[in-house]
Amino acid sequence: xxxxxxxxxxxxxxxxxxxxxxxxxxxxxxxxxxxxxxxxxxxxxxxxxxxxxxxxxxxxxxxxxxxxxxxxxxxxxxxxxxxxxxxxxxxxxxxxxxxxxxxxxxxxxxxxxxxxxxxxxxxxxxxxxxxxxxxxxxxxxxxxxxxxxxxxxxxxxxxxxxxxxxxxxxxxxxxxxxxxxxxxxxxxxxxxxxxxxxxxxxxxxxxxxxxxxxxxxxxxxxxxxxxxxxxxxxxxxxxxxxxxxxxxxxxxxxxxxxxxxxxxxxxxxxxxxxxxxxxxxxxxxxxxxxxxxxxxxx
Length: 298
Prior knowledge:
Mean pLDDT: 97
Shape: globular
Helix content: 40-55%
Low-confidence stretches: none
Radius of gyration: 20 Å
Order of helices and strands: EHEHEEHEHEEHEHEHHHHHH
Largest sheet: 9 strands, mixed
């Protein structure tokens, strides 16, 4: 099977490498960054700088770019991937986007004679490289069947939420409400403890062995303890994703005060110049308010 992956970032690279490791597929990866292409080619993949350079006759295309605008451009712009795809190829679009954008892209795919799976993912860079992502998918039976070999290589669990495009994206937006709020409150707890005189490592050790722990606290707060700002997922990602949450809430007349407050904290950290840093460093918003020193800062 001839498969392509557009976007060799933290999630896309892991997914592309998992496809190569799975065997039985010719895998092409698209990314404008030379370093990403070099890494992927060294692992046995076919590297391309542009979607228009995908091998002709690609049968399945996994899209892992930042947002709907990037996904649409990568697929349907004049330099996009659509002309390189085989008739009836399946688009597996895993970018986090508003449900209405997923429905719009699915309609464009159908008009081009392509299948479409609305397939946001979770699991982080580690899960992607382990072939253990969680997929929240919606699409026709034909689209899901054609995407099955790709999912088998990159996912530990595929949740099929229905046939209508947009259901997968709706699930991901709801999930991101939890993820964003959990990161923000993890930072708040760490900052409060530091301000109150608790040694940060002791605070982490106690919380991760007590009932107040969360997956996000345990996963993200080590970045703060180590002073490691390298983005696995950046502050600005949650500015965007929590914006999708509040947009969906408005559309269905649903109050979402915790999501709205968490978004303001991420916006605050971004406004201070931390938007490209790891999302754990939303804690910089609390640092600016309270003057705390984070670990590794003396």
